[in-house]
Write a structure and sequence with these properties.
heterodimer, A: about 525 residues, alpha/beta, Rossmann fold, 3 domains, six-stranded mixed sheet, B: about 325 residues, mainly alpha, two-stranded antiparallel sheet, 13 helices, 2 strands
Chain lengths: ~525, ~325
């Protein structure tokens, strides 16, 4: 405990609020960061951490609230102001000009005169000194694009130190690093703390928070929900705080009667556009008559896994069998072909891939199945009347409100959008149903309705896969639970043995052996 | 001696014809290195040419004409800056609009003001930029070869030509060795990086567009008041686009761009020289083939057949911060 503080806090936020259109990214956030400490900010992706830090660094302006730097109110209207106050940031996506050299990147914005040469000479000497002092060695003449990711990050830190940063913000710094590089980074951060620097570390990896921070603050859904001394908390507690609890009345669930495996995957590996492995060798078998739940903190590969199983992206390695038939590797591995083979998919991000927000509800209700002759009229053209009739039937049958098929899908509430998409998929009577984040942004009543629908599918013998970041949801629905961390399945538990405590530890990347030994919260 | 007799006029014409190309290509280079695509070079040169010729005709002096040309091009440049920086509009659309405005506006204004069918009155020698006689020309006149090279190739160009060629090392230096140049390159490659380093992307891009406009104004003045003697309708005739091609061929770098401009200038000079020349078996020499060559070369280069030219990464992309 740092009590009472002798110096004013390095940085203090009071009531910071920020919206991006309809998204409320930060809701009256308060934060106090003591000088000379390493302070962690944890929260799931989208909790508002990065926005908050970008506000401190002047990249965004807060809509309301106050920032105090070393006890003095500070107006940070741009990065220039932040840099003048000694606040600098290492962004998640590096702010380096790839085609310039290390030296030019370090100089940018701190050139020290209209001609580059004198400032460059000084910066070169400074880089050598900092390199020795902190073990941050980089060739100043190298081009950024030729450097490894770890070296690029060192350049970012050097850039900040060269500009005289005393408060250094790092946004998800280890997301792109190997474990060894991450260890090196932590050594640098500790050395900076010894020199009186204040470090703000944003991450969703609890292990790192426990390893390197002095204090930690937890954000969830744009709000600061807790502040803890690292020594007085645990990864399990932080995990719970990050995810939050949402109490649901458990829907009735009969005993599972698993049938044959309808969807099987072996050795799946999926890389993202940058070549980073998001799914690192996953095997799974999904049986008829069961709900398989996949849980993990957002961004641990479950989204990529779901898209791959649904045929939206091809894996880089592995095999997929749907109803006993090899679909990958195979020529007709795509979302449309898999749908014809009896696979339904409710995507994680309904606004991006589940519906067209400017299309009518009736059009939304046939998306992906628009080739069906049932929606055709004379001359084989789509028949608006038939589409509207189908939309109206679907909306009434699944209690989508208001049941107006001409309404634009984007104007429905989140819960009703989700009900409409689920109705569309269920109506095709698929034998395998993949559902991503079934109740994200859905109100309590909608959650219950959607859960009952999914359990009805299970009772009808369908194979249901639910990917969710909500522990309660997984516990309410799943017969079997897979926990994903860092692209791998780190644990599989039957529902009867799953508790929040055990799942929370697994989700935090703390191994199964320790998870089973840890005290289980009631 | 005969070779020299044939080559010297063509080479001198090459330098003369390369001058407006070079100015416009450097304009495009400065603008695109800052991240603003400028297909409006053509229009800005045309407006510059018209304003320069009009003011020179009225005042009877070349320099006020030059200043007017620069001013007029800058006004169009401000339109481009407003559309593409302040409003984050499409830079190509804005540039094309500028070309269309320039073409119609100059012809119309010329018709209204001078009533000579869309031209300005022919300029007397005093209202034009004339060939400069370099000091020592007479002293060297007796020296074989060197004397004539000095008189007609090194010398004998207009002040604007010397300015254009001097701007090559200047722009190379500014881009590579100064704070302004570093920031400019950063804004064209990764504006968010410049922004987080405390550099105002909007201000810098505006400065780049204005510098480009000044260069286009000079280029226009050189066409109407140095090469030519007065304004004629659409007299830039595609040179703004040839300049873009030269800039691309030069890989957005000043010295290679100079080479490309000289090459295109040489093609142009050769086309003029070969006009009407009979070629055995073909008849008249197909001058159009030479004139089309710059475009062909650019297409080939852009398609990646010769080396690989990499444009500034953020060129043409409006910098929008809020997500």
């Amino acid at each position: 405990m740092i009590l009472p503080p002798e110096a004013p806090p390095a940085i203090e936020l009071r009531g910071i609020d920020k919206r991006f259109g309809a998204v409320h990214a930060c809701r009256t956030v308060d934060l106090r960061v003591e000088a000379g400490t390493i302070h962690g900010i944890v929260g799931e992706n989208g909790a508002g951490k990065s926005t908050l830090m970008a506000i401190m660094h002047g990249f965004y302006q807060a809509d309301a609230g106050e920032i105090l730097v070393r006890g003095q109110p500070a107006a940070i209207r741009g990065s220039r102001d932040a840099i003048r106050l000694g606040i600098d940031m290492v962004h998640q996506h590096f702010m380096l000009v790839e085609r310039l050299t290390v030296l030019e990147n370090v100089l940018l914005g701190a050139e020290g005169g209209a001609r580059l040469a004198p400032g460059a000479a000084r910066a070169r000497a400074e880089l050598a000194r900092l390199g020795d002092a902190y073990g941050l060695r980089v060739d100043p003449q190298a081009r950024i694009e030729d450097l490894s990711v770890g070296a690029q990050q060192r350049v970012e830190i050097l850039k900040a130190l060269h500009r005289g940063a005393q408060i250094l913000i790092l946004d998800e710094p280890t997301g792109v690093l190997t474990p060894q590089e991450a260890d090196d980074l932590f050594r640098v951060l500790r050395a900076l703390r010894t020199q009186g620097c204040t470090v703000l570390l944003i991450t969703h990896k609890l292990r790192e928070i426990m390893a390197v921070t002095d204090r930690v603050s937890v954000m969830r859904a744009g709000q600061m929900v807790a502040h803890r001394d690292t020594a007085a908390t645990s990864a399990a507690e932080l995990g719970e705080l990050m995810i939050g609890r949402r109490l649901l009345p458990p829907p009735p669930r009969s005993a599972p009667q698993p049938g044959p495996a309808l969807l099987e995957a072996r050795g799946l590996v999926v890389r993202d556009a940058a070549g980073v492995e998001r799914v690192r060798g996953i095997d799974l078998a999904l049986r008829g008559g069961e709900v398989l739940g996949i849980i993990g903190l957002a961004g641990n590969g479950q989204g990529e896994l779901l898209e791959t199983l649904a045929g939206m992206r091809a894996p880089d390695a592995g095999e997929i069998r749907l109803r006993g038939r090899a679909v990958f590797p195979g020529r007709d591995f795509n979302a449309a072909a898999l749908r014809r083979l009896g696979l339904g998919h409710v995507p994680e991000d309904r606004l991006r891939s589940g519906l067209l927000s400017r299309a009518s509800a009736a059009d939304t209700a046939i998306l992906g199945y628009q080739g069906d002759p049932a929606y055709r009229g004379r001359l084989g053209l789509l028949s608006p009347g038939r589409i509207a009739g189908h939309g109206a039937r679907l909306m009434r049958g699944h209690d989508v409100r208001p049941p107006d098929p001409t309404l634009r899908a984007g104007l429905l509430s989140g819960g009703n959008q989700q009900k409409l998409i689920l109705a569309r998929e269920i109506e095709r009577d698929p034998s395998v149903l993949l559902v991503g984040q079934p109740t994200r942004g859905v109100d309590i009543g909608g959650i219950d309705a959607i859960h009952r629908r999914l359990l009805a599918c299970r009772a009808a013998g369908k194979a249901v896969l639910v990917v969710s970041v909500e522990l309660d949801e997984i516990l309410a629905l799943a017969d079997r639970i897979l926990v994903m961390f860092d692209g791998r399945v780190v644990g599989e538990l039957p529902a009867a043995e799953a508790t929040e405590g055990r799942l929370g530890l697994l989700m935090a990347g703390i191994g199964p052996e320790r998870a089973s030994a840890a005290p289980v919260p009631a | 001696m005969e070779v020299l007799d044939a080559a010297l006029p063509v080479l001198a014409a090459t330098l003369r014809l390369a001058t407006p190309l070079l100015l416009a290509a450097l304009a495009g280079l400065v603008s695109e290195r800052a991240g603003i695509v400028d297909v409006g070079l053509e229009g800005k040169m045309l407006v510059g040419a018209f304003a320069a010729a009009a003011v020179a005709a009225v005042t009877g002096q070349a320099v006020p004409g030059l200043l007017a040309g620069i001013g007029a091009a800058c006004l169009l440049g401000l339109v481009h800056a407003y559309a593409s920086i302040a409003l984050n509009g499409s830079q190509v659309v804005s540039g094309m609009a500028i070309n269309i405005i320039a073409s119609g506006l100059t012809a119309t204004l010329a018709l209204i003001w001078f009533r000579q069918g869309g031209q300005t009155p022919p300029l007397p020698p005093g209202a034009r930029f004339l060939s400069v006689v370099l000091p020592g020309t007479e002293a060297l006149a007796g020296v074989p070869v060197l004397g004539r090279v000095y008189a007609t190739l090194l010398g004998g160009q207009t002040a604007l030509a010397y300015l254009a060629f001097a701007l090559v090392p200047v722009s190379a230096y500014v881009l590579g060795r100064t704070r302004f140049g570093l920031r400019l390159r950063a804004c064209g490659e990764h504006p968010a990086a410049a922004d987080t380093a405390g550099v105002s992307v909007a201000r810098l891009r505006c400065a780049a567009v204005l510098i480009a406009s000044v260069l286009c104004g000079i280029a226009g003045a050189s066409i109407a008041t140095a090469q030519g003697a007065g304004f004629q309708r659409d007299m830039v005739s595609g040179r703004g686009f040839i300049a873009l091609a030269a800039m691309i061929l030069g890989g957005w770098r000043p010295w290679p761009t100079l080479l490309a401009c000289l090459g295109f200038g040489l093609l142009d000079a050769a086309a003029i020289r070969l006009q009407g020349v009979a070629v055995p078996g073909i008849g008249q020499f197909p001058v159009q083939a030479l004139q089309a060559l710059p475009y062909g070369l650019t297409v080939v280069l852009l398609a990646g057949f010769v080396g690989r030219t990499v444009p500034p990464r953020a060129s043409g992309v409006p910098y929008v911060k809020e997500r």
